[in-house]
Amino acid sequence: MVRNSAIRRLPLYYRHILKMQKDGIQYTSARILSELTGVHKTQIRKDIALTGLVGVPRRGHCVNALIKAIAEYLNWNDISSAFLVGAGNLGKALMNFDSFEKSGMKIISAFDVNVHEIGVVINDIEVLPMDKFSDLIKRMHINIGIITTPPEVAQEIADIMVAAGIKGIWNFTYTQLEVPDDIVVESVDLYRGLGVLSMRLGNIDNLSDEE
Amino acid sequence: MVRNSAIRRLPLYYRHILKMQKDGIQYTSARILSELTGVHKTQIRKDIALTGLVGVPRRGHCVNALIKAIAEYLNWNDISSAFLVGAGNLGKALMNFDSFEKSGMKIISAFDVNVHEIGVVINDIEVLPMDKFSDLIKRMHINIGIITTPPEVAQEIADIMVAAGIKGIWNFTYTQLEVPDDIVVESVDLYRGLGVLSMRLGNIDNLSDEE
DNA sequence: TAGATTGTTAATCGATTAACAATC
DNA sequence: TAGATTGTTAATCGATTAACAATC
User: Fold this and answer.
1) Which of B37, B102, B163, B189 has the highest Cβ tally under 10 A?
2) Separation CA A14–CA B61 (nearest Å)
3) What is the enclosing helix (H) or strand (E) of B80?
4) Tell me: domain B4-73, CATH 3.40.710.10, correct?
């Protein structure tokens, strides 16, 4: 079983390597990537090894080959289609992220229950009424469901998505979704990061008070 | 040094305990929280111990005391003021999150370079021109800077924030910010999660192909 | 060749889980 | 009392880092 922590580092390397390609650099090494990202060089070697790419001693890795290997490993070449549910500001923000397509995902349509949002087109993505969701998702080959609704309805939406045959859910609410084991769920819980920020800032204040 | 991983779990318990309070439940236990969150019960005991709260054998922990202890530990009681830079959709989405105030942070003003956004008021937060940023931040007691700009300008904004005396940065771009050691940075990099989702979905497809 | 880098194995570190005495 | 839960110490697990032979 490959560890998620390794998979999470690969997009980081990827962006730096992409920049190197743009700058016309042909070869890079674990040492260089380590300096750029702060990740230990042995870690980087192991992560690259996951992709199956073999490097050249004394020269490092070919930038073009690295890009290809990482994109292939992360399955970023064949793009999954996604439906987004909840076309509020957060939903709209995601619809505006063009570069998701470079990361293996394309948002095809958005859905909302709010009549004021229906018909709105953002970045070529139309907001449709929620009651068309199940019908459309079965007809099209949609793999990913994105949930940007209020937390109270997240589980309900997830259930609808699973019933419609979705394979992966990107959940932007703090609700912990209950889904079958074969469904991949990736959650972004903003409050957890905010806890760290708030807690660490509190410690700084307390320290200076003690001086 | 307290581990970030523990701090990240506390907001999770907090929400479940808050719900218990709402439902009139007076006592809870590590076993119950474990069932709700999926976190191991010993882990939960250790995390609660961090807050300094002592439980009652055979009964568990008092819900009200737990809420108080976690909020205090995460420093969620004294609310830090924040300035947000980048009033696009993502920035607006964050401005609309009222519940951040319950998590120790309040967004006071937003800033943007786009003249069309200036003057816009969202959820009582006004969007001001970026050139007023440094002046205002020095006059008010602002601890947190939120970056929801395009990634290319994130470092520049971070530099301005640090120069203006900000103590913590919540970074929503994938740019890896370079800041002095005493600045707390919490980053939300959407692409890293998308890598996991895409990669795991690819494996599912491959597995079914092999059947 | 000399030296920088790879890839891998071993050691360390930290986080998670198991075990268990103490307690009400 | 009996039994469920706490809090803590010990054991395990996994991830990170160090060490080093192989290579061009």
Assistant:
1) B189
2) 46
3) strand B80-85
4) no
Measure B176 CA to D24 C1' (Å): 34
CB B70 within 8 A of CB B15: no
Residue type, B74: L
Q: Which of A95, A167, A176 sits opposite B204 (nearest CB)?
A: A167
Name the stretches of chain B with pLDDT < 50. 207-211
Look up the CATH superfamily of A80-191. NAD(P)-binding Rossmann-like Domain (3.40.50.720)
Torsion of CA A154, A156, A160, A161, to 10 degrees: 20
Alpha-carbon distance of A189 to B8, in angstroms, equals 10
What gap in Å lies between CA B58 and CA B73, rounded to an integer? 25
- In the prediction, which pLDDT does A210 show? 37
Report the gap between the CA of B191 and the closest CA in chain A (Å): 7
Interior/surface letters A101-122, b for 16+ CB within 10 angstroms, e for the rest: eebbbebbbbbbeeeebbebeb
Question: What global pTM score does this model have?
Answer: 0.94
Q: Can you give the residue ranges of every domain in chain B?
A: 4-73, 80-191
